[in-house]
Amino acid sequence: MNKNFIIYILLALACIFVSPYIFDDYGMRILNNIFIFIILAASYNLINGVTGQFSLEPNGFVAIGAYVTALCLLSEDMKWELFQLEDPAPWVLALNTSLVPALLLSGIIAAFVAVCLAAPVFRVRGDYLAIVTLGFGFIIKVIAINSPEITNGSIGLNEIPSLINVYWTGGIAILTVIIMLNIVYSKYGRAMKAVRDDEDAASAIGINTFKIKTLAFGTSAFFEGIGGGLLAVLLTTISPDLFTFFLTFQLLIIIVLGGLGSMSGAIIGTILVIGGSEWLRFLDSSMNIFGYETDAHPGLRMVVFSIVLIVVMLFAREGIMGKREFSDIFKRKRK
Fold first, then answer.
1. Second label for 33, Cα 20 to 30 Å away, from 1, 44, 275, 278?
2. pLDDT digits 0-9 by tens, 194-209
């Protein structure tokens, strides 16, 4: 771990500890959301950007993590009260843990599902891989709707205990990025990049491409499951409609905007997409411009935001960071 990396961690920790004194409750909620999406974007970037597998599965693993965490945190009495379509399954009633075991269990189950899916999923490549993984996300949603004894069906789960704060989300986000960077710069990370650049050539030089892709897929799913658990605790209510393809599309925008394969880019992309879309919310309401009162235009912020994204991508074809990290920029400046 080099000196610059330690400085970045200390700066991030300082921002986390100072933030409650700067932002109000609304600002803190947005900041928590940004940290959760940093976890999701960094983990998604590992399979999509670093390993080069065009996967569209995050919403499925996030949903798994969210439901597992919610079921672990809800008490038995609360489950009897919430489940209206059918009585909860016996093993659902037996689930009852604190936050940390719930998050770990969410990640483990998501990773287990990913490893089980790896064999059929990685029989195909490119656009076909995207279609297969996209279908997985839809399957998870359908299962959630049609399993009322487990998920309470389309009604979803409410009154999930809100046990997190910025220290939890920010701390886990920092830990996720550290782990991802260590993987990227390890021998496994170099193998993942080789698979991304040319899978046939990587296989020819002795790299077990299936093993590497499965490792990236499972690791990505693990942290997406944890991110889903944090999202459930932040929102305190979840339903199948929350985990649609729009969530995957949002993460895809973030990692492409920041730079595929760059964890620093994932952080920048998350701040711009999640924070920027909230900051532009004033465009939806009426405004006073030089004494002239304009009408409210709901949705205008998304139009402006989309134009900004188009302009950025026109001038940064590989994203804002490309495949570089912050440390790479400073190394070049020193030279």
1. 1
2. 999 888 899 998 899 9
Q: Report the C-alpha dihedral over residues 249, 252, 253, 254, rounded to 10 degrees.
A: 130
> Cβ of 265: how many Cβ atoms within 10 Å?
30
How would residue 177 be classed by pLDDT, with cut points 50, 70 and 90?
very high
Q: Which region, left, alpha or beta, applies to residue 172 given φ > 0 means left and ψ of -120 to 50 means alpha?
A: alpha
Q: Sorting pLDDT into bands at 50, 70 and 90, what band is 300?
A: confident
pTM above 0.85, yes or no: yes
pLDDT digits (tens, 9 = 90+) for 9-60: 888 888 889 988 888 888 899 999 999 999 999 999 999 989 989 888 899 9
Torsion of CA 268, 60, 164, 38, to 10 degrees: -10
Q: Is 292 helix (H, G, I), strand (E, B) or coil?
A: strand
Q: Is 293 left (phi over 0), alpha (psi -120 to 50) or beta?
A: beta
- Return the closest-CA partner of residue 53 out of 174, 134, 154: 134
55 Rama class: left (phi>0) / alpha (psi -120 to 50) / beta: beta
In angstroms, rounded to a whole number, what is the distance separating the alpha carbons of residues 125 and 206? 19
Q: Please answer whether residues 192 and 65 qualify as being in contact, where contact means their C-beta atoms are separated by less than 8 angstroms.
A: no
Tokens linked to 322: 């490309």
| Residue 289 confidence class, pLDDT cut points 50, 70, 90 | low
Torsion from C-alpha of 260, 264, 268, 274, nearest 10 degrees: 80
The Cα 248–Cα 112 span in angstroms is: 20
Distance of alpha carbon 220 from alpha carbon 133, whole angstroms: 13
Cα separation, 215 vs 55, whole angstroms: 14
